[in-house]
Amino acid sequence: MRESLDSIWELADGRNFDLVVLDDELLPANERELLLNRIRRVTNRAPLLYVASIHDAEVERAARCNGAVCYTSKPLDPVSLGAMLKAWLSHLLNRERRAPSRA
Q1: Out of 31-45, 52-66, 73-87, which region has the weakest mean confidence (pLDDT)?
Q2: Which residues lie below 8 Å from residue 23, measured CB to CB, with a gap of 6+?
Q3: Residue 21 within a domain
Q4: Domain, as residue range, for 83
Q5: Burial of 36 (0-12, 13-18, 19+ CB in 10 A)
Q6: Residue range 36-46: average pLDDT?
Q7: pLDDT at residue 5, as a whole number
Q8: What's the whole-model pTM score?
Q9: Where are the alpha helices (DSSP H) in 13-102?
C-alpha cells in the first residue's frame, strides 16, 4: 500500500486538480486521516468527494474535518451521486467567483 501511495504523490506533485475522489475500499483504517491530510496539503483547493466502503459516522466526521465537500457510502445511489456532483460544481463555481480577476 505504501508504495502505491508514494506513486500517487509523485504523479500529483505540482499539478492542479479540479476534483479529488477518494474511495476508501482498500485503504487501511489507520491511514485514512493521514491520507486526507496529505491530500489537503497537495491539493488544498480541490474539492474532495469521499466514498466510504461502509457508512461510519466517525469516518464521515474525519473526512469533513479534513476538507471533504461530500461524503457517501457504497453502494452508490445514482441520485446521491448526482447530488454530490451538483455540490462539487457549486463549490467550483463559488470558488471561481471569489477568485481575484486576472485582468
Answers
A1: 31-45
A2: 51, 53
A3: yes
A4: 2-98
A5: buried
A6: 77
A7: 62
A8: 0.71
A9: 32-42, 57-65, 78-98
Determine, yes or no, domain membership for 103: no
Report helix, strand or coil for 53.
coil
Output the domain CATH number for residue 70.
3.40.50.2300
CB 38 within 8 A of CB 9: yes
Per DSSP, the three-state class of 33 is: helix
Our count of domains for the chain comes to: 1
Region label for 37, one of left (φ > 0), alpha (ψ between -120 and 50) or beta (otherwise):
alpha
Would you state the cell numbers that stand for residue 48, as one nine-digit string? 474532495
Cell of 22: 477518494
